[in-house]
Amino acid sequence: MNKLATLTLATLLGLSTAQAADYNLRFSHFWPANSGVHQGFEAWGKSLEAASDGRIKVDFYPAQTLTKAPQSYDGVKHRIADITATVQGYTANRFPLTQIMELPGMADTAVHGTCVLQSLYDEGLISSEYQDTQVLYLFTHGPGYLHTRDKVIEKPEDLAGLKIRRPTTVVAQLLESQGAQPVGMPAPETYPSLQRGVIDGVAMPWEAMKVFRLNEQAGQHAEINLYTLSFVVTMNKQVYNGMPEDLKAVIQSHSGMEWAQKQAKVFDGLDRAGYEEAASANHHIGTLQQSAWQAVFEQATEQYLAELEARKLPARDVYSRARELSASCNA
């Protein structure tokens, strides 16, 4: 081999070595690859890679390509994926205190709800629910509203007989109390279900109406602060524990409130985009009076807290602190 070829090969091998990451982390989630939500996660991954000098690389698997939405949390626990972003309520009964955030009227925006949720975790009020993974950050979307194909929703009794996609069992209880038929399904499955008439409507934030193209199928919108959904970005604990201390520090610097709020701002932007999309299509958008729904909301809240108390969980303490944080986070 001549000297030029030897030098070229050595250079290429050197570049290959320099570019190889110590850890290639597989990040699984259910949002589409072309969505702003995915782009928010990508920004986190790129920042992590830069802060680790390329020793950590994040490979993304959006749109349920690695784990299905309901199995995402267990997928990380059992290391099918190394990291996931998922809905706690998709794993029934595992995060009951976290799901207090789903009760009506808990947050006005994603930034507001995220401040409450991440603070509850940081204060140790819900952290015991996550001992089997390494939590990076938690966030919420903005208020979840009612969106239907045909029927206009104005008051609670208008829900009677309607098949409404619900995100979790907490929201299902509220809908069922008014005679609706809650249908459980992950967000990516809602478009064809609306299209085929399998469901009459969805309980969703404006963000989801945009990201999952649901404004194409639902032309009636009822803005009533029905619920706020919680999300977690979390990591396989064994992978995290196996990292050297300097890389653990990089992971920690990309955890907590700062990154939670960055992702929340993405959701608030998508909420605005989803609303504007529906408005420009001349959809019917009704802003409902909270007073007409207050009794329903109080009943749903009391029922859920009582169920958790029966399980010997400190539900009212967590709820009370969440309401305090809701006021202070909004100040």
Short key terms for the protein model shown above:
six-stranded mixed sheet, globular, five-stranded mixed sheet, alpha/beta, 44% helix, 331 residues, D-Maltodextrin-Binding Protein, domain 2
Description:
This protein is an alpha/beta fold and 331 residues long. It has a domain at 144-228 and 275-314: D-Maltodextrin-Binding Protein, domain 2 (3-Layer(aba) Sandwich). It is built from twelve helices and eleven strands. It has helices at residues 3-19, 36-51, 72-77, 110-122, 169-177, 190-195, 206-211, 237-241, 245-253, 257-280, 290-310, 315-329, and strands spanning 23-28, 56-61, 83-87, 134-140, 144-148, 163-166, 181-184, 201-204, 220-227, 230-235, 284-287. Strands 7-6-8-5-9-11 form a six-stranded mixed beta sheet. Helix 2 (36-51) links the parallel strand 1 (23-28) and strand 2. The longest helix has 24 residues, at 257-280. Residues 14-18 have low confidence and may be disordered. Residues 1-20 form the signal peptide.
What is the compact description of this entry?
The chain is of the alpha/beta class and 331 residues long.
CATH superfamily grouping of one domain: Bacterial extracellular solute-binding protein, family 7
- Given the C-alpha coordinates, what overall shape results? globular
CATH architecture of one domain: 3-Layer(aba) Sandwich
DSSP E strands, number: 11
* Proportion of strand residues: 15-25%
Helices and strands, in order, run as HEHEHEHEEEHEHEHEEHHHEHH
CATH fold category name of one domain:
D-Maltodextrin-Binding Protein, domain 2
Question: Class by helix and strand content?
Answer: alpha/beta
Mean pLDDT: 94
Rg calculated over all Cα atoms: 22 Å
Helix count, DSSP H or I runs of 4 or more residues:
12
How would you characterize the largest beta sheet?
Answer: 6 strands, mixed
Helix coverage percent? 40-55%
CATH class categorisation of one domain = Alpha Beta
Whole-Å distance between the termini?
71 Å
Strand order of the largest sheet: 7-6-8-5-9-11
Catalogue the unreliable spans.
Answer: 14-18
